[in-house]
Design goal:
Elements (H helix, E strand, L loop, with lengths): L14 E4 L5 E6 L3 E8 L14 E8 L2 E7 L2 E7 L4 E5 L3 E4 L6 E8 L7 H6 L5
Antiparallel strand pairs: 1-2, 2-3, 3-9, 4-7, 4-9, 5-6, 5-8
InterPro entries: Cupin_2 (IPR013096), RmlC-like_jellyroll (IPR014710), RmlC_Cupin_sf (IPR011051)
Pfam family, one: Cupin_2
Protein name: Cupin type-2 domain-containing protein
Length: 128
């Protein structure tokens, strides 16, 4: 559903939960995507998981964490820090915090149609 007016989803509008591992999550679910704020405590590794249809992208806001994923028969690891973005696709993945501080990151969950939209993102802004 397209909207021509801003839709504000305040922090209090999100569904909040604390997972058994201590990760705090605030979910904002929309018709075509989901955005959630995560706070991953030090010493926590999220359970390995993947999605068959949903694609995830992670944007680290503060702190440093390890992203682990499996692809091509091997396990891979990259450290992510503030400002880093990782597009996870549908690969099995987890993140781990061994930084000594809480890591804050935003997850974008999308169900994509496979049609490239870069030109729309580059050119759709109209100045008033």
């Amino acid at each position: 559903m397209r909207t021509t007016t801003p839709l504000i989803s305040r922090a209090a509008d999100g569904k909040e939960t604390v997972k058994p591992d201590g990760t705090a999550v605030r979910y904002h679910l929309f018709d075509e995507y989901e955005i959630h704020w995560n706070e991953l405590p030090d010493g926590v590794t999220q359970q390995w998981h993947h999605h068959d249809t949903i694609e995830e992208a992670v944007h680290v806001v503060s702190g440093r964490m390890l992203l682990h994923w499996r692809a091509d028969g091997a396990q891979h690891t990259e450290e992510l820090g503030p400002g880093d973005v990782a597009r996870l696709g549908t690969a099995p993945h987890t993140w781990e915090n061994k930084s000594g501080e809480v890591v804050r990151f935003i997850v974008f969950k999308l169900v994509l149609d496979g049609v490239g939209k870069r030109e729309i993102f580059r050119n759709d802004k109209q100045l008033d």
